[in-house]
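dumping this here so i dont lose it
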């Protein structure tokens, strides 16, 4: 009796990466089925011409026909609205900056999608992410899954998967993680796939490229307030890095990890904005204030008093900080066997946004949470974003930045 081949469900998005992923799995001897996910229906705030969902679905179906694999459509829009979009609105309302792509992977692609795949008889599921997985055996005989960066340094997407669990990783395959993007394009071209020359998607996961203020205005009302410019010579405290040998080190570390705080009298009013909750630290576009020698950047927002604090130039000291804090409840370990103990000190490489190069830092694990002290000051540290830490090319853990 012929042994049944394992079945893999591929999240076919209408892009080149997932298309090639499906082909590679077929080459490896799997029975492959395709699932197209519908996660969003509203077009409010979408910028015209940016790959609307119906085009994605049409092209995904054409790919499935070309590869001669079953094509299924599943609507996860209710889950997506509650788990991702509502969270996103709530975070912006609080003056924090969420990353919906990380949440989309944790809450949708690796949860209801897995359930849908299993209902269709799949043993595994696969995505077109540029990352890799390795399974190792621990000394006690248990298996542990390692999440590794993609081989292509320009396309590594491991950061977006920084909140995955061991259970989620146990069922996923990353067929293109070992390839460079040009190689993926070449394979698609040789197969004459409809996605071979299609541009990569941009914007919010499954929503598309949006005008963020217009998108947020669906639930967050406009509220005019002042834009205040803080001069470069504003007196910034704590310019000296805390000394680990000092008996006051923990107090200094806590102060160092706090965001810079401003008041209206620290600068001058230079314009108006439609709502502080529409802006994020480091933002340049959308301020609509001209006549300045250097570009303006958002240094801080105060959603309670509805102020935006800005500064001129890439070198403004208010854009850079050397430390951040993550509350204990927000710490997540992909490698649960690597979880740190109280008062432990470790060295890791960190990124606080996608495409940022890895930054060297020292980790201080304390009772209330984790303090990350960078070797070099970091631009635009923002509460609500995810910090992900790596041991060489392995993503070990992550957490939502508290401050």
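and the seq i came up w/
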């Amino acid at each position: 009796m012929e042994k049944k081949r394992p079945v893999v469900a591929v999240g076919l998005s209408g892009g080149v990466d997932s298309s090639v992923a499906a082909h590679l799995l077929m080459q490896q001897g799997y029975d492959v089925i395709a699932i197209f996910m519908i996660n969003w229906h509203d077009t409010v705030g979408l910028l015209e011409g940016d790959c609307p969902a119906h085009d994605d679905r049409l092209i995904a179906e054409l790919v499935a026909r070309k590869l001669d694999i079953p094509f299924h459509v599943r609507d996860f829009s209710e889950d997506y609205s509650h788990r991702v979009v509502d969270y996103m609105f709530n975070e912006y309302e609080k003056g924090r900056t969420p990353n919906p792509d990380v949440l989309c992977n944790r809450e949708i692609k690796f949860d209801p999608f897995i359930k849908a795949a299993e209902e269709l008889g799949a043993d595994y599921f696969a995505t077109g992410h540029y990352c890799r997985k390795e399974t190792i055996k621990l000394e006690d005989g248990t298996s542990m899954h390692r999440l590794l960066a993609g081989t292509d340094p320009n396309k590594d997407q491991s950061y977006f998967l920084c909140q995955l669990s061991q259970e989620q990783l146990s069922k996923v395959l990353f067929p293109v993680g070992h390839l460079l993007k040009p190689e993926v394009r070449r394979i698609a071209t040789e197969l004459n796939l409809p996605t071979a020359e299609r541009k990569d998607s941009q914007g919010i996961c499954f929503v598309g490229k949006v005008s963020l203020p217009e998108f947020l205005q669906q639930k967050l009302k406009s509220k005019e307030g002042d834009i205040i410019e803080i001069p470069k010579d504003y007196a910034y405290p704590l310019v000296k890095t805390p000394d680990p040998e000092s008996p006051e080190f923990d107090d200094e570390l806590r102060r160092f990890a706090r965001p810079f705080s401003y008041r209206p009298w620290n600068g001058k009013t230079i314009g108006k904005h439609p709502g502080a909750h529409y802006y994020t630290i480091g933002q340049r576009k959308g301020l609509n204030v001209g006549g300045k020698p250097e570009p303006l950047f958002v240094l801080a927002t105060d959603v309670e008093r509805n102020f935006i604090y800005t500064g001129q130039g890439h070198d403004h000291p208010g854009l850079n900080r050397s430390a951040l804090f993550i509350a204990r409840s927000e710490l997540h370990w992909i490698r649960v066997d690597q979880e740190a103990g109280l008062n432990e000190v470790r060295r890791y490489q960190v990124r606080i946004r996608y495409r940022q190069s890895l930054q060297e830092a020292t980790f201080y694990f304390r009772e209330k949470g984790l303090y990350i002290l960078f070797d070099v000051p970091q631009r635009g540290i923002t509460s609500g974003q995810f910090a992900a830490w790596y041991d060489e090319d392995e993503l070990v853990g992550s957490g939502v930045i508290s401050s």
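The two ends are 60 Å apart (CA to CA).
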